[in-house]
Design a protein that fits this description.
five-stranded mixed sheet; two-stranded antiparallel ribbon; 2 domains; alpha+beta
Length: 460
């Protein structure tokens, strides 16, 4: 749930960075409607009722709005989403244009003064709180000015209309309260809707990520079933070859290596086919450096030196007892394997902890991560690091790969990142200044060294 909320915040921040929720066409259409309504109202009052009003100045005010619409049509494509600042400026113009029109036609005594609410409500439904406050302040200032300074209300020359000062003060207060109440109400409702939309989007992304991981699990189970028989055949053939080949010859060593790798594949497939054994292993706990040493054993070789240590500030202290949860074992194992695959000669594993966090850092002296894929590291089918070094015996490459290039599909890092995040860890990948690559995983204390296994906590 916490990761979904964080994802929701990232989605909301991303929307703000790209653009707001209001399209240029929407505001343009609303202004055309307002300009048309204002024009009709002016001619009905002037021609229909025969009331005297400053016709040319009123029409010039409306024409200015039409000109702004034409400018916006030329400046922005119709589908362009305006930023919060652009929307605030445009709505502020609408407030000022309405204030000028009401100044020419009676001030707050004009019944159309109620239209002040419209721009502020639009802002409350689409903008951030600071923009709403700015627009509300402009509306309040405009209402206050035209309440004091305005030309006479268009009326019949045969009659006299004089509104009491107390009544006009009541009109001012009603407009101010209406703008304030409706703005707060609409803003709260819009904020709830935005949070719900962001939460829904985050949940959908999390579900899609879990679905991809589940699909990979089903694929692994199917692979375990399908590969069992071919690997058994390879093991038998390798065993027979090792018997007939001269002992100590290069061919005998190759047959021995082939048999060992087939046996390793068989053990991996057994773990995939019997996940309940991993659950039993989750009840065991080890000191953190001992756990790293156990994980690194499978990836040590003649040409790769893997060192394990505690951070300088933690040497001599009692090491945290870490759960051997399946997510932790597979996640860290994949990252260590990736580091060993790309390292030139050294891989360093370091554990650090204090009262607030526990961190595991995995470094290698390989080529590092490509800068252009940093933002996509951890997604499936994204190759994290190409390497041109010769393949070691444990490397598996297509038969037509004669260059020795080792490029993966990014699935290992994706699986590792997803599994470690399920235990509460935060995975970060960087290229140190001295070269190579560094992957660090940080947990709050108690997540993998608490009283409850992280596997059980993830299920809860």
């Amino acid at each position: 749930m916490a990761s979904a909320q964080a994802m929701g915040r990232r989605i909301s921040a991303g929307q703000d960075a790209v653009g707001g929720r209001v399209r240029a066409r929407t505001l343009s259409n609303l202004r055309w409607m307002a300009a048309g309504g204002q024009t009709v109202a002016i001619f009905v009052v002037y021609v229909g009722f025969g009331y005297t009003l400053p016709l040319l100045r009123c029409l010039a005010c409306v024409a200015f709005s039409a000109g702004l619409n034409i400018f916006m049509a030329l400046r922005y494509p119709p589908s362009r989403r305006l930023t919060g600042r652009e929307t605030t400026v445009i709505l502020a113009y609408d407030v000022i244009q309405l204030a000028v029109l009401l100044y020419l036609t009676g001030g707050l005594a004009n019944p159309f003064a109620l239209m002040f609410i419209a721009p502020v409500v639009i802002a409350a439904a689409t903008l951030e709180l600071n923009n709403i406050l700015i627009l509300g302040g402009i509306a309040l200032l405009s209402i206050s000015l035209i309440a004091i300074f305005h030309e006479p209300l268009p009326w019949s020359a045969m009659e006299t209309l004089a509104l009491p000062a107390l009544y006009q003060a009541g009109l001012w207060a009603s407009l101010v309260l209406s703008i304030g109440f409706t703005s707060i109400y609409v803003w709260r409702i819009a904020s709830e809707g935005t949070r719900m939309s962001a939460g829904l989007a985050a949940t959908q992304l999390a579900l899609a990520r879990e679905q991809r991981l589940s699909s990979l699990g089903a694929l692994a189970t199917a692979a375990a079933h399908e590969l069992g028989s071919p690997l058994g055949t390879i093991a038998v053939v390798a065993n027979e070859l090792s018997k007939v080949l001269p002992e100590g010859s290069p061919e005998a060593e190759d047959a021995k290596l082939l048999r060992g790798q087939a046996e390793r594949c068989r053990m991996i497939l057994m773990r995939l086919a019997n996940p309940e054994e991993a659950v039993v292993g989750a009840t065991a706990r080890l000191p953190i450096c001992a756990l790293l040493d156990d994980l690194a054993n499978d990836y040590r070789g003649e040409d790769i030196d893997i060192t394990i240590s505690a951070a300088p500030n933690n040497r001599g202290e009692n090491q945290p007892q870490v759960w051997r949860a399946p997510e932790l074992l597979h996640g860290l194992g994949n990252i260590i394997e990736n580091a060993a695959d790309f390292a030139v000669s050294k891989v360093r594993l370091e554990a650090a902890w204090d009262k607030g966090y526990l961190r595991i850092t995995i470094e290698d002296d390989g080529p590092g991560f490509s800068p252009e894929i940093f933002e996509r590291i951890g997604e499936p089918y994204i190759t994290s690091r190409p390497s041109d070094r010769p393949l070691r015996d444990a490397d598996l490459a297509p038969s037509n790969d004669v260059t020795g290039k080792h490029e993966g599909m990014g699935l290992g890092f994706f699986i590792a990142k997803t599994l470690l995040e399920r235990t509460g860890g935060v995975v970060r990948a960087v290229n140190p200044a001295e070269g190579g690559a560094r992957v660090s995983v940080t947990w709050p204390r108690g997540m993998i060294d608490g009283e409850t296994s992280p596997s059980m906590a993830a299920e809860d």
